[in-house]
Amino acid sequence: MNCSGKHTAMLAACALREWPLESYLDPAHPLQQLIRTAVEEAAGEKVAAVGTDGCGAPLMAISLTGLARAFRSYVLAEPGTPERRVADAMRAHPEYVAGTRRHDTWLMRELPGTLAKVGAEAVQGLALPDGRALALKIEDGGGRALGPVLARALRMAGVTAPVIDRVGRVPLLGGGREVGEVLPVF
User: Fold this and answer.
1) pLDDT in tens, 141-179
2) Torsion of the alpha carbons at 120, 102, 143 and 44, rounded to the nearest 10
3) pTM of the model
4) Taking a C-beta distance cutoff of 8 angstroms, is the pair 5, 12 a contact?
5) CA of 57: how far to CAs of 30, 50, 53, 84, 85, in Å?
6) Which of 43, 100, 136, 150 has its CB 3.0 to 4.6 Å from that of 66, i.e. a possible disulfide?
7) Residues 6+ positions from 64 with CB-CB distance below 8 Å
């Protein structure tokens, strides 16, 4: 389960602070309130709504601008701060963020200092080491377009590297052979 680490960390934080374990997913739980505060501080805006992620955890809605600001804040955080430690851990071990065959891992491995994470329903956050950041959402939630759109956005930001071509390449198959590809239109 790709959310198991998140749940493990939440339960460990509750155990450390002697908070109830049974209700850790309740948005009113002290842990979830702490998470909400951290999200709001990183995003520079209030959480607009709270829903439920596919794994049962509270899902705190912020704008795409807020999401980009949050990624930027973690990349530019002072060394040794909790935010920077999270960013550094993700960048040092991107396979724990996204496995070995996804564009988050490729980008963090091949563009040193980059922080990237895809989210549910085709949401992507990314910050480059110089603080440039982006967040995007494919409106229908279909992930197939995410790589090509992300690659185009990075090219528009002046990022050039072979990994961008790999991220942006989504072939269309017909009868088991390639008949086209997904291309972004801006």
Assistant:
1) 999 999 999 999 999 999 999 999 999 999 999 999 999
2) 40
3) 0.92
4) no
5) 14, 10, 5, 24, 23
6) 43
7) 135, 136, 137
